[in-house]
Design a protein that fits this description.
20% strand; alpha/beta; 5-stranded parallel beta sheet; single chain
Amino acid sequence: MSELPPIRVLIADDHAIVRNGVCGIVNSHPRLQVVAEAENGREALAAIDRTRPDVCLVDLQMPEMDGVSLAKQVRQSFPATRIIILTTYDSDEDIDRCLRAGAQAYLLKDIKPSELISAIQDVHEGRVVIPPSVASK
């Protein structure tokens, strides 16, 4: 039986403390590997071009290019790369905009680490992940 390749993850958030925490969670799983970090949308787009991650964890509100604009660009330029929005904003308008832009998941930052890891794996496998608290919006 062959070992599955790692799921390569990019983390884009303008708060260093959040990026560091999410990196720690992601890298704690043996199959997940953080390949790049970015503090704004433009930096994330360049890092995606350079590293070709499988999954991107993207904050909704970032300087220079927000999560919705980034998701649209990624869908156009890197269609195999999957997008997870990880945010504190839970308005129905934000959720709708992100999903229409091509995000495969919309998660709130109060998610448990185990749920984040499961969401990354699910999105990598092609599933859409919308927690019940978000879906009810």
